[in-house]
Structures are given as structure tokens and as C-alpha cells.
């Protein structure tokens, strides 16, 4: 199984990928599927999952959560293998809700200085793993730092393109010997996944600005 574990759709305010385009790119890139991780919303689930089933692809239900403490953002997490939306923003409440759903909480682009990064690493031991490769990091040294941290602390790792446009999908992924969603979940936990990926052009971030300003239709 080869799956990109960090993909955004048009339901993220800074992304432009239509559900149909995501499914097309899954097939074009030779992926088994993706994890849909829109920012604080699960609106894409109802659109993507029927399309994925028809195409014989896997869509892991996820959500990217902005975590706050005393009114300040302290980082972002991906909740993967969810059953329902997480709506809380407090770290402890997020952890409790994820555990109740048997979901995995993954630290996203933890050392990316241009995005929200974790200033409270003492919280990390309560989480499930680290995104060790993110294609939207400007510097690969940030990914290398994430991987080194994961190895030092024996964390499970994931990888994803962080795609906000169709062409980015599949630029990073995990590969493992899994036949279904539950086997994939167990492979991540057991650290039995292989990570592969390459960086996207820094210019790709311009699409996120364009999306926020509503200057382009999703495609």
C-alpha cells in the first residue's frame, strides 16, 4: 500500500483541489489512497469517500487541527482514522477525543519555522507520531530534524504531500505491507512503514494565498 497521509481539498480555505481531482490524482500517481486532512473541517468526507469506493481507492478520514492554549496557537495536529469530527481546540480535550475514537494524533511539520510549530515539546509523548516528511516544507533540513527527533524518541512516523492543489498529491507518502485501513493503522503504530517524498516548489504556497483571497476556482 502506498498512501499520501496529508491532503487538503477545496473545503480547506487555503486549498483548491476538488474531490474529483483528488481521486483522479490518486489513480494517476499510482497511490492506494490518501488521508484527507482539511483544516478544522470534515466536509470533504461525504464527497470523497463514495468517489474513492467507486474508484477502488482508500480515503482515510482525518482532520488537521489548530491546537490552542490560552488563546495562542501552539501547533497543528493531524487526527487520522477518525470516526467523526473533532471540534475542540484545547490540547487535552483533543487528545481525549482522539483516544475515544481510537484515532492517531500526528504532529504536522513540527519544525517548520514558517508555519505553526510546536513550542511545547513536552506534550509530544501524549501523541501517536510525527510527520517526518512534508513536501511543503521550504527547507528539507526541517524534515530531517523531524525524522531525527522521531528516531531519538522512538516515535512512529508518517509522510504526506500537504497538497493544497491536485498536482501536489503523491509527492510524499508512506509505503507498507497493508491490505486495508486497519492494517495501515497498525503498520504506522508498529513503525513498519517506509517513507518516501520530495519537496514541492516554494512557489506552490502562492496557491494557498490565491485560495484564501478567492481569486481562483477549485480545480
TrEMBL record:
Residues 3-69 form the Polymerase/histidinol phosphatase N-terminal domain. This is Histidinol-phosphatase. It holds the Pfam family PHP_C. Gene3D superfamilies: Metal-dependent hydrolases. One of its GO terms (molecular function) is 5'-3' DNA exonuclease activity. InterPro entries: PHP_dom, PHP_domain, Pol/His_phosphatase_N, Pol/histidinol_Pase-like. It comes from Candidatus Iainarchaeum sp. It comes from the Archaea.
Amino acid at each position: 500500500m502506498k498512501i499520501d497521509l496529508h491532503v487538503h481539498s477545496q473545503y480547506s480555505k487555503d486549498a483548491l483541489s476538488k474531490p474529483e481531482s483528488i481521486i483522479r490524482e490518486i489513480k494517476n500517481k499510482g497511490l492506494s489512497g490518501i488521508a484527507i486532512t482539511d483544516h478544522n473541517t470534515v466536509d470533504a468526507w461525504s464527497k470523497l469517500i463514495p468517489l474513492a469506493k467507486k474508484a477502488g481507492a482508500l480515503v482515510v478520514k482525518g482532520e488537521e487541527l489548530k491546537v490552542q492554549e490560552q488563546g495562542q496557537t501552539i501547533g497543528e495536529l493531524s487526527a487520522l482514522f477518525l470516526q467523526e469530527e473533532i471540534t475542540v481546540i484545547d490540547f487535552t480535550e483533543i487528545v481525549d477525543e482522539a483516544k475515544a475514537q481510537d484515532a492517531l494524533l500526528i504532529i504536522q511539520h513540527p519544525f517548520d519555522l514558517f508555519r505553526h510549530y510546536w513550542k511545547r515539546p513536552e506534550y509530544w509523548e501524549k501523541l501517536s507520531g510525527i510527520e517526518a516528511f512534508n513536501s511543503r516544507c521550504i527547507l528539507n533540513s526541517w524534515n530531517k530534524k523531524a525524522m531525527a527527533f522521531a528516531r531519538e524518541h522512538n516515535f512512529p512516523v508518517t509522510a504526506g504531500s500537504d497538497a493544497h492543489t491536485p498536482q501536489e498529491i503523491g509527492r510524499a507518502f508512506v509505503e507498507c505491507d497493508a491490505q486495508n485501513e486497519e492494517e495501515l493503522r497498525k503498520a504506522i503504530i508498529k513503525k513498519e512503514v517506509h517513507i518516501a517524498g520530495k519537496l514541492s516548489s516554494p512557489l506552490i504556497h502562492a496557491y494557498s494565498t490565491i485560495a484564501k483571497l478567492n481569486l481562483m476556482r477549485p480545480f
